[in-house]
Specification:
This protein is of the alpha+beta class. Helix content is 22%, strand content 42%.
């Protein structure tokens, strides 16, 4: 009888440990959702005013930065960038955040409000129109995840394409 109680306690302890580890893994994967994925702009439109960019990966919005609504920002220095974003280094070959050299590059970022929904941004085009940049994008919203997140999207652009202003245009379909 004593042996069965000990086996039962051991089984319960193993189950609790497994559920705890599973919860920690789920929490880690939900923070992964805030990270962006590195991609090169492969837009092959024949338009001459398309601007090349790369999408930064492994950054998150600092918990000290709050946005009441979706914001588009042009950031041209590391201090401002670091006030808004933190690095999310993970293990593996592609685990380092995308390098940004603010002496040669600037950033266009979308920063969403804190939400339970999983929100992502899909770039459609980055162009120069009438002496300013025009960034068109779509918003994808998935059902609530149960965790609060602040979504973001970061584009890194060569300074030779920098303009004083950026128009942020949401494409709705």
């Amino acid at each position: 009888m004593v042996q069965k109680k000990q086996e039962m306690k051991r089984t319960i302890w193993i189950m609790v440990t497994c559920f705890g580890l599973g919860g920690m893994m789920a929490a880690c994967s939900s923070s992964e959702q805030q990270k962006t994925v590195l991609q090169q702009n492969t837009n092959t439109t024949a338009s001459e005013n398309q601007i090349p960019y790369k999408i930064a990966k492994n950054y998150f919005v600092n918990n000290t930065y709050r946005s009441a609504s979706l914001q588009g920002k042009k950031i041209d220095n590391a201090n401002t960038f670091n006030e808004i974003f933190g690095m999310a280094t993970v293990m593996g070959e592609n685990g380092k955040p995308t390098a940004i050299d603010f002496s040669k590059e600037f950033v266009i970022a979308l920063i969403g409000e804190v939400s339970e929904n999983e929100i992502s941004y899909a770039p459609i085009s980055l162009k120069e129109i009438d002496g300013r940049l025009s960034f068109e994008y779509a918003i994808n919203i998935k059902k609530a995840s149960g965790a609060l997140m602040q979504s973001s999207f970061i584009m890194v652009i060569d300074k030779k394409f920098e303009k004083d202003s950026v128009a942020f245009l949401v494409r709705t379909e």
